Amino acid sequence: MTVPDTGAYENIAPSLRQYFVHIPFFLRLLCFVMAVLVLARPQTSNHWKDSEVEGIDMMLAIDVSTSMLAEDLRPNRISAAKEVASRFVADCPHDNIGLTIFAAEAFTQCPMTTDHTSLLNMFSGVTCDLAAGGLIDDGTAIGMGLANAISRLKESKAKSKVIILLTDGSNNQGEISPQTAAEIARLNGIRVYTVGVGSNGTAAYPFPLPGGGVKYVQVPVEIDERTLMEIADKTHGKYFRATSTRRLAQIYQEIGKLEKTKLVVKQYDKRYEAYQPFALVAVLALLLDLLLRLTILRRIP
Q: If you average pLDDT over residues 234-256, what whole number do you get?
């Protein structure tokens, strides 16, 4: 019985294709390894760095007493103040900005930072609920709010140190008078820009009813403009009156044209995803594997 053998081919030199026949297997193996690395989510390491930018050191002091719920500004005073101030912060990417809120008491909502994303997140949580819910005493302690903001700015080395004080009433609470706080600001080289918020005459104020619902009552607008002017004059700042949301936005734009100074800012870089190079290698290895298997290294069953 005659059987075929390969003896006639044993002296034939192997072709280039035979040397590369296992390359598709290694390409698929490489693709698998890279896919595993991508799923492991490699990340760059955190680090601190110092950078020099043009900007100013600034504290926003916002009144959160219940009178800020009046609806002479739309939708109400506190919401209009937050909206306009948030746009102002977004337009000052290199300024070192912090936030103080006050009613009968004052505290720092956010210390000065160039991380405006975090600042805006904290800003979004500013409401009049603390005073309305009785968590802090209701009232307007302008001196306390100003003093709290000064405590955050007094150690600053910036050439321009500014406080934007926004309120809709007159000082009726607190252990520090507005005049005393203004003198402290002057001695520390801090300019205070005061903003009185509210229409002239009366404003619609929502009173909750026991059975549910809201009753609107016209209440008089009482802004101690004389005191706010004194604070601004003493600190070489300026007093503004905002009777509408549009006017409030114009005031912030005017304040935004202040003199800038060079600041050395310490920035913290978070981890960033570093999977892109591994994903690129995996895709290229898969495409090359498919190309070789369908062309020069194609196998016929």
A: 89
